[in-house]
Specification:
Layout lengths: L9 E4 L8 H16 L8 H7 L5 H11 L8 H23 L9 H10 L3 E5 L4 H12 L10 E2 L12 H10 L6 E5 L2 H9 L3 E5 L14 E3 L5
Parallel strand pairs: 1-2, 1-4, 2-3, 4-5, 5-6
Helix pairs in contact: 1-4, 3-4, 4-6
The structure holds xylulose-1,5-bisphosphate.
């Protein structure tokens, strides 16, 4: 894909929903298993998760839900520690699900990245998921398809402010030594699009299951798949 009639120097990929449908097939399943095993009285439906995804970060998402339900005991002291434990365990269960093959790369995404690599364009990751989650996904889903590791991966632990804040993208530009106009971001969600645009980077949106509606203001292009 050309960027203003030229190849970009790097494509910066979001992870969740973009490389794979990790939210529906991995994170949501893991959250509900952990709520049950830790006696946290929550069951998140697909519908719940769709609005919860407006908050990036798994721990932040649980806090928003606690507030929404008026269960303020989860926001401080022992309750807050329970949510932190639940988040750690959620990521462990998520990694197990990924290792067991519950999550697959989105159709065509590996070929899409390989096509850029063959033309000398680097690929990098800009996500606000935990680093362990990306590493589990890379090892189980992407490496076996022959995809080399990204030149750089900025993850949730690397930033103070998650998407839609542009911090993760700005760090990636700094780490790669590139200007915004050298790069193309690939995102599936409005928060990611906003983050990339706020960093001055053109953004291709490849919509995922939970983000069909947008808004997609400022997108370079909006697609439903990597195959078209
Ligand atoms: C990713 C997220 C993450 C994952 C879970 O955002 O929102 O919260 O759902 O990851 P993006 P953690 O795809 O926009 O980068 O539980 O590790 O936070």
């Amino acid at each position: 894909m050309l960027l203003n009639n030229a190849l970009p120097k790097a494509v910066l990929f979001d992870v969740d929903g973009t490389l794979a449908e990790t939210e529906q097939d991995g994170h949501l399943v893991a959250f509900n298993r952990v709520f049950q095993s830790l006696d946290i009285p929550w069951v998140w439906t697909d519908e719940d998760y769709q609005w919860l995804l407006k908050t990036t970060g798994g721990l932040e998402r649980m806090r928003v839900y606690a507030e929404h339900c008026g269960q303020l005991q989860f926001l401080e002291g022992k309750g807050a520690e329970r949510l932190q434990d639940a988040h750690r365990l959620k990521n462990k269960v998520y990694a197990e699900l990924v290792e067991q093959g519950a999550v697959k790369p989105r159709p065509g995404v590996v070929a899409f990245i390989q096509n850029f690599l063959q033309q000398g364009v680097a690929w990098a990751v800009v996500t606000t998921t935990s680093r362990a989650n990306f590493e589990a996904l890379y090892a189980a889903c992407l490496k076996p398809s022959g995809l080399p590791p990204p030149r750089l991966a900025i993850c949730g632990e690397d930033v103070e402010r998650k998407k839609p804040d542009p911090q993760a993208y700005l760090q990636a530009l700094h780490g790669l030594g590139l200007h915004p106009s050298d790069c193309l971001a690939v995102e599936d969600a409005p928060n990611g699009l906003k983050a990339a645009r706020a960093a001055g980077i053109a953004c291709l949106v490849v919509r995922s299951v939970y983000f069909q509606a947008g808004p997609w203001d400022g997108a370079y292009a909006v697609r439903d798949s990597f195959l078209s």
